[in-house]
């Protein structure tokens, strides 16, 4: 993938990770609220687990894109030498 395209994908992945972090915090607040009122939190906890797994995937993708960008930079540097 060319560098510009990698940067576009990285921006999207970072946005998704930022949004995911907000969703995780809100889900944790929901669980706390439900728990405090004595309500069942099982479904909310399952939702939290899914959100955390998705967040992990977003962060993995960011790492892979950063690695690919590093390789692209090295390749471009070698080509300019």
Written description of the protein model:
By secondary structure, this protein is mainly α. The chain has one domain. Helices cover 90% and strands 0% of the residues. It has 2 helices and no strands.
pLDDT < 50 runs, ≥5 residues = none
Counted up, domains total 1
Element string (H = helix, E = strand): HH
List the total number of helices.
2
Residue-averaged pLDDT: 93
Q: Describe the biggest sheet? A: none
Provide the structure class. Answer: mainly alpha
Helix fraction, binned, reads over 70%
Record field, number of beta strands: 0
Radius of gyration over all CA atoms, rounded: 19 Å
Straight-line N-to-C gap: 21 Å
Strand content: under 5%
Overall form: rod-shaped
Task: Detail the topology: elements first, then pairings.
Blueprint lengths: L2 H34 L5 H39 L1
Helix pairs in contact: 1-2
Quick take:
With 81 residues, the protein is mainly alpha-helical. 90% of the residues lie in helices and 0% in strands.
What are the defining features of this structure?
rod-shaped, 2 helices, mainly alpha, 81 residues
């Amino acid at each position: 993938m060319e560098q510009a395209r990698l940067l576009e994908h990285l921006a999207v992945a970072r946005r998704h990770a930022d949004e995911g972090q907000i969703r995780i915090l809100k889900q944790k607040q929901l669980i706390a609220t439900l728990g405090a009122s004595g309500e069942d939190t099982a479904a909310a906890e399952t939702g939290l687990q899914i959100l955390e797994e998705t967040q992990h995937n977003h962060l993995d993708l960011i790492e892979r894109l950063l690695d690919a960008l590093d390789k692209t930079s090295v390749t471009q540097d070698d080509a300019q030498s």
